[in-house]
Amino acid sequence: MNQELLRIVDSLARDKNIDKETVFEDLEAAMLSAIRKANAASEDIVVRINRQNGEITASVSGQKMSVRDLGRIAAQTAKQVMIQRIREAERGSIYEEYLDRKGQIVTGRVARWDGGSLIVDIGRVEAILPKSEQIPGESHMPEERLRAMILDVREQPSAVKIVLSRTHPDFIRALFELEVPEVAESIIEIKALAREAGYRTKVAVASLDTKVDAVGACVGVRGSRIKNIVDELGGEKIDIVRWNDSSKILIANSLKPAEVAEIALCFELGRATVVVTDDQLSLAIGKRGQNVRLAAGLTGWDIDILTPNEYNAGLDTLERALREVSGVDSTIVDQVVAMGMVNVLDVEEVGPEPLMNELGMNRELASRLVVRCAEEAKKVADQQAAKGRSAREAARVEGEATPAGEADEQAKPPSQEAGEVEPAPAQPEPQEPAQPDETASDADSPARPDEGAAP
Questions:
Q1: How far apart are CA 122 and CA 107, in angstroms?
Q2: What is the pTM of this model?
């Protein structure tokens, strides 16, 4: 019996990943509860288990007793206490183990669906992959092998809740650590990362060893390394950007495949005004603005994309407004532009304080300058609103000029019996000009020249 007890304790400790001493203490507590159940009046109860030979000794009020003499009810009490304490110890062990693995990737088996969430068996416990943490468009079947990142570990009264994620940006970081040894060994550092799960990710990397090319190492021979990551993500595009401490160079790299003509940085607003040629505008903005959004997230700058005409028009308006303020000369205009303020809206938003601190202006001049720019900004906004109303009114009038009956006749195909009558040409419907962020498509764009793009 004693040797059997030692084997049971050893097996429990291994299976539940619990310290053997904790199991012995739980057994002693269970026996103590059972003896107290049978001897409610006594308070001096002692139970000891010899860790070497498994011998159990118990005493009540100083008199030895045998645990074999306990009745069925006391034995049932001991069993319940032991099960409860073993479960608590196991829950604590699971919590500590997975808390240390937070942010790491685990591989599990899809167990079942629970509403929109996915229950994944990851070994000692079942974890949950919420709907919000699943990559859009992905579908998983029971018994399928699945990799995900441990996002959160919560200790609850009845169980340990482990939340997984496949959409978190750190999931990409963890995949790079698995697939690229240089990243795992900290030879290559992932400096920044921006992601729209299921669609596209931009990763900025830098090498701590001058002999190692950061982008080339992440892509791998013939794209083998990046291909494994893309396959794991179900085809999500990954752009690998070369990191640079210069904000201008980093912004230009992050906007690839578009080529940038000029960049103006306004540190007071945290805004970067990027000038691209008309043929590069769609590439810079990306499909539904995706490219510029990811570039902004990667660099930490609020990025505005302008064409040369828009940029020059803003500068002309700014210069005209500034020169109308008495005491402002070309030097002050150049200094304001050098601060990255390229239109009247920037000056209005910045306010007088930066102008006073950076350019040494007195408060009166700085305030008058800001007020004048605010007036010009309102005038520009009113003009743009008037143009928009005029365009909509013209479209409405043109639509009303064609009678409904005539439009219906034009839409009908010509009758076979009246084949000699030529059908009237269909009148094109007025359309509003398409916005760049709605027409920019990766499929219509030329081949992406950025060196780190996923194949």
A1: 6
A2: 0.71
